[in-house]
Specification:
Distance between the termini: 22 Å
Radius of gyration: 17 Å
Mean pLDDT: 87
Oligomer: single chain
Helix content: 25-40%
Number of strands: 8
Shape: globular
CATH architecture of the largest domain: 3-Layer(aba) Sandwich
Strand order of the largest sheet: 4-3-2-1-5
Number of domains: 2
CATH topology of the largest domain: Dihydrofolate Reductase, subunit A
Amino acid sequence: MHLLRSQHDCIFTSSKTINKDNPKLTCRIKGLLSTSPSRIILDKNLLIKNNSHIIKNAKSFRTFVFYNKINNKKINFLKRFNIKFYRIPLDKNNNIDLKYSLYQAKKLGFSRIFLESGSILTISFLKEKLVDDFKLFISKKKIGLNGKSNIKNNLSKLLKKKTNRIESVNLLGDKLITYKLK
């Protein structure tokens, strides 16, 4: 994962992923920390936790928040960490407009964008046909029947119709499957 991050300009993720997993989203392979991508957080209502790793290290790694609902108190707090903000319109489903978000990222100079998120945002990008290459990591660890089956069913439907499976790698019991979507 760290090597994949180092090959991209920025990472898209959601505040839900940040709040749930508290990732750093940096490349922590020795010698590659400086290749860590910028981070773009899709956070419609500015719900990102103030004490997250992303906020704590935002002065060292360029960080952007794409939001819609204005919360001046939260924006002023986060600006102290060098975070940049862009107000993004909502789509017909009242979510951050993904196409406009990608357009804004391009305007900021990003062309190699890595989506590293949970299933909801991932599936939204897939449904909008905004993904060129898809890498699916499958852990050998069991996560529970409800989560596993729902994610598996949703992804299976989307990936069967649109993809060419180009690679499958065994990573010490975990799997990495790569698909070409466009």
